[in-house]
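Note to self: the last two entries modelled the partners one at a time, which told us nothing about the interface. This time every component goes in together.
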Amino acid sequence: MKWVIVSVEDKGHKVDRKFIVVMVLASVLTVAAFVVYLYPGRGVGYAPSQPIPFSHKLHAGERKIDCKYCHTSVGRSAHSNVPSLNVCMNCHQHVKKDSPHIKKLTDAYNKGEPIQWVNVYVLPDFVYFNHERHVARGVSCAKCHGNVQEMEKVYQANTLSMGWCVNCHREQKPPAPIECSTCHR
Amino acid sequence: MQEQKQNTAPKKYWLSLNEYKTPALSNAHTKGEFLELPEKMADELGVNRRNFLKLMGATTVLGSLAGCTRRPVQKIVPYVNKPEEITPGVPNYYSSADPITGQGLIVTTREGRPIKVDGNPEFPEGGKGIGLTGQATILDLYDPDRLRMPKFKGENVPWEIFDREIKGALDEGQEIAFLTRTTHSPSIKRVMERFRASHYQFDPLGMEHMHRGQQESYGRAVLPRYRFDRAKVIISIDADFLDTMITPEEFSRQFISTRSLDGDGYSKLFMFESAMTLTGMNADKRVSIHPEDHLHLALAIAKEVSRLIDRNIDGLGESFSIANVAKRSEVEEDLIKEAAQQLVRNPGQSLLMAGGVGAKTEYAVAVQNVVNFVNSALGNEGTVIDGKEMTSNLYQGSVEQVERLVTAMNAGSIDTLVVHGVDPLYDLPSSLGFEEALRKVKNLVFVGTYFNKTARKAQYVAAESHALESWGDVNPSNYLYAIVQPTISPVWNTRSFLDSLIVWTGIAGNSPPEENSYEMVRNTWRRVKDEASAPGDFEDFWVKGLHEGFFDGAKNQNKDRNSGLIKARNFSSGALKRAVSTAGSLRPYRAEGTYTLLVKPSIALRDGTQSNNAHLQEIPDPVTKMTWENTVSLSPKTAEALNVKDGDFVNLKNSNAAIELPVYVQPGLRSDIIVTNMGYGRVGGRITDEIGGSAQSFLNTIDRIVTHVASGVKITPVVGKSRALANTQEHHATEGRDVSFETSYEEYLNAPESGIVHHLKEITNLWNGHEYKGYRWGMVIDLNKCTGCTSCVMACNVENNIPVVGRDEVVRGREMHWIRIDRYYRGDAENPEVINHPMVCQHCEDAPCETVCPVLATVHNDEGLNQMVYNRCVGTRYCANNCPYKVRRFNFYEYNQPMNGKMEYPIPLSKNPEVTIRSRGVMEKCSFCTQRIEYAKNIGKREGRRIGDNDLQTACQAACPTDAIMFGDMNNGSSMVAQQGKNPRSFVVLEELGIKPSVSYLTKIWNRTPSEEHGDSSHH
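The predicted structure of the combined assembly is written out below.
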């Protein structure tokens, strides 16, 4: 199909140029507004701010703390946990006690109030992902989560779409299961 | 189609009287898959095609906009200090016990909240069966209508204020009395002793007649332990031991064990009953009688037994001859003779049983005496009946105790009455005068979970915690103890009865030796250890008790609970004489133009304590298939005579009471008997407040017995008042196709495959078939072990987050249960035979549902599962239309989240996190508990092995008290299901469709002689 560009002044039809500009601008703004509005959680790059700016780059990258030191249940449960505050306090009762962020952490710990972190990797409720199986098969954390050790602020590194999951399952040798009930219950 | 090949003509079954009268396929319920079609609803709403298209357009636009919502930001809230034993995503299991029934429980918790309760399979009595009420208890825990905090004079107050205010009522100088349900908890008993108080016990389903019969016959009032597993013949006179009597789950397990085809012999159950019960449905011979004839029938059997064993008994005169009793009771002479002969032929291995609550008359004690005489004469006492060693501690309450309490109250000698666990203003017959006597009591303290009738009169209402939130202990049977272990901290600001009592002992001037219920239970456990002289360290003993869930002291006393001889007691002949003299002066029940009403506990609600549980309300009654209300059951003849049909309202009235109820026409009833269920019409919750009428006013107290049989009841139809009943029996009907196969034991011995009718020899298959390399899941349901108790339905509801739809939706045939028990009648409407047939998704290999789904939302997997993918389903409902088993359920509304897409707190806590909450517009059905399969497979992979029968049970299988449901891997030759595949009794339903179901059934075997098989007997 060939695009036909028709001049607004053709065939004697007088159309207000201003009107066209306004319409185009309005359309662009509407689309932009939708994109901005829908941005959180939609796909790659979602990087919400956390109540404490925890740096994976510092902990996992520079200090080389193993992922499983904090995310303890990743190898024995479907869920990988976000560490409870007492795990943070193992080190931070000694390390960088004076930092304002660590003070906030210590405060919360002493008061017994949990920190409400923002979930970055959000799966729909009808998807049942199992961390244990993937870790046991030797799938590296980075395969899904990206190079977390280089992230100052964690962002979503992959689309987490069903196609993305299934393609990877197909590529395995032998292929990983791709039955519906593998993930949907 | 190929030519039909029939070995034998199929038996004719009918689901309901409608189907009985009119041939299948012609009634409203079988015309379409869905009872109410959208087109019809549209017509009613005045929507025509043009409007419909307009609305459709608008919906599309709105729908696409609605799809553009911003995804909510989700928070992750970790623990501050993570408890060591909790791993997110991994369930924990705790042992506990039910404080009322004393049964051992296994509680599944996820992230610190209990989500499923099952029976403890190791528990010495009862085993894994905990019945409908036990399975449903998890929903009571999360009931938003529970009392949330204590009330003083109607006002919610904190505990500190409540305890301060209650001081005056419990102080020294106050005469205190406790009125409770049977309390077998040793800790509660111990703490009660610290109050200088009298303790009265009362059970809404009282067994006082049994206690008194034992007292008169053997000199001690006990509730014996019945051993149905040792009886080859059971003659029951209105003893509904598979329904609600004492411990029905244990009895079911014992009874079914005598109907094993591997052992020698096969038991026989004769049921003489006045209502239609589950026990009667499972009887080899069921005979309708009138409760007035209980005593004469028992005496006639006793007389014939005495004659057969050459024992001369004085006083059993001609009026108890078989001929006279047969004439009086309209029971065939031969049947009474046969019953007596069967008993005599199996001395020490038979049981004559009587005493069901639903048919309790004022001379129930006399009937017990006769029954005890026969059992003693035949040596069943001491073998089948244990009245000495492992006697039951349940149902110790009696109306006699209430009478003493009322007398004391009237005399003004009780200042403070503490009521726990019962609602006396509802439960007690008004003839006792409890309500009037209550006015003489200064302080009424109510401890309970609902704001019921009694609570509304009480100045002090102590909100009680649920058993899953409390420490406690139970002692259901001699030597047997179990710990009630909390699995969640109280959801509301509530306190357990034990904790309240401990706090109040401190108030009453005695400083409590223990600080709280935990300390108290531990100290009790110390005593249990000492009493049994159990060796070893206490801490080990305590941890073992918590881990195993019980302690059976019998072993330490060199007694074996399950085998060994029991010492027989001596029958006192005076008891029989008293029974004979009672029989001489019976009050006549039958009178021209009146009916006899039975107020019977139902299997789902029992006494109605859990009547605010929506899941229990929506369970179809195993007999009537009624949900959400109590009806009055009339025989077809009575209904015809009164010119009423299902749903028409009638007035029931006798000299004491009146009630208006809708009619339900029940096959198998005598025409002079009408039946209704108890437990309805309670107050204290949004569900129970609205449902049914209370028939309690028809209960009476005569001669220290609460009678459940009311005579002289007149029925007057309420002209013009009628409504559709929420009855599921015609829903999902099988349209007269052959579904269930049964045979007799005799025929089975001749040909094990007898009864099965094959319609097609071979079928051409259009499909390529499937290849199953790994696992291949399958289920076998043994109809011979299924009693129809419906526990599986409740277990499935809880496991799979199945929503309640409510009465109106059930009327429209939209109940969501993934498993249903089809109940088929056979024979004539006056006395039909019954077969129960559990029906689940059959996971067909060539499934008709799969081929019609336009979006591949239901597909087959490589392990034989017919998968249902909710997120792909667009709701065409083609699959449900094409399912020959009618097992697919559609979410017409947002059933699970009825409040604008939300659930009321704390209901979300009850949901199983491993199962998707389905929303409006999607289809669902039995998944073979695919979440449990995935969980077990994960463990198998972790441990590098193939999983077997021990790794995996479906929810229904785990709940079945009789192990009728087997599930496993058919590719594993040693699995139960693979073994059963070779069973000659095995058949699949609707084999002629050639769709190869993964569920197979084993035929039902009756112990009937061919002459007893009536109805359609064309197969001979």
